[in-house]
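Much of our argument rests on the idea that a fold can be written as discrete symbols. The amino acid sequence and the backbone structure tokens for this protein are reproduced below:

___
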Amino acid sequence: MLGSKKARRWAGLFMGTALMGSLLTGCGGGEKAADNEIKVGANFELTGNVANYGTATFEGLQLAIDEANAAGGINGKQIRLVKADTKSETSEAVTAATKLIADEKVKVLVGPATTAPVIAETQIATEHKVPVLAPCATSARVTVENGKVQPYIFRSCFIDPQQGDVMAKFAADNLKAKTAVIYIDSSSDYSKSLGAVFKERFEAAGGKVLMEEAFLQKDQDFKAALTKLKTANADVLFVPGYYEEIGKIVKQARELGITSPILGTDGWDDPKVADIAGKDALNKTYFCTHYSEKDEQVKPFLEAFQKKYGHAPNVFAALGYDAGKLIVDALKRAGSDDTDKITQAIAATKDLQAGTGTISMDANHNPIKQAVVLENRDGDRVVAAKIIP
């Protein structure tokens, strides 16, 4: 995910666009929602470098909204998703958010999938008092900046410190690891943040990080860095990243003779990892995620998604679905399309049964939800631990 300093610069740059959008709306530029519908903005990376993340998240969101509409909608009104493409660019995300909020008059904004554009759109959303729900943006700074909670920004996923803490504890307590090496994606705020948290928490638990290396998104050959990491002979290798690179890293690590457990986070949670790495290479790998497909409470979502799209969901789709369920629930409880009432309803979310489990919202606008550590074993994914914060 992209850097938050850039995000703030984009936010400032596009405030002029935001104000222009407001002026145009006053002259009839925006399309007013029909009396029988509620507009929800969907601002996602549908093309560009991270389109696979944004598209999957949008698919999950769309499924939740379709289900709500088929069940009669919200207090007699249908939800209309107004979709925008950020083109995987922070500047485009701010432009799209401005149009959705100022021109389309959406009552809630969902997305983008990555951290930097969510931070960048915060200013325009806050000025217009439109709540934003970030399904996948894991940086702690999305909802809390300089110790202050962002009043209109929420998320439906873990924050980086939680995942890093879970995997550090799992390494120390469950695997009895004393030493570790870390391999991060230096082009991703997500990966860098998780690497830093894992190191801090693992060493606080008495472990020692012996070496750190980095790769870049879209890299293909990881053997040089993996060869260096192998020389440390560490008990575990921690690789926070996304499935496209992870499959190749695990495969190449095993080819080089690295036999130690390899650990990761929710970016691993995609069937494509097994397709790329192969089931044998994935043995003795573990990752933190939001649910296990074997949980009975998750099966309705998995079956509905498969039926609608013809393929299994990945973690981005699941988080998009959770975001949709959270929005639907908040709209029902708000009893109005007033954005302040919707914001209050999102903040008051408690014991909501979503796609990946039960969600409540904490005081920092982060979800309280169970984390699951899955083990890849002989082509299957087995629950290794469940942790509730």
Summary: The mean pLDDT is 90.
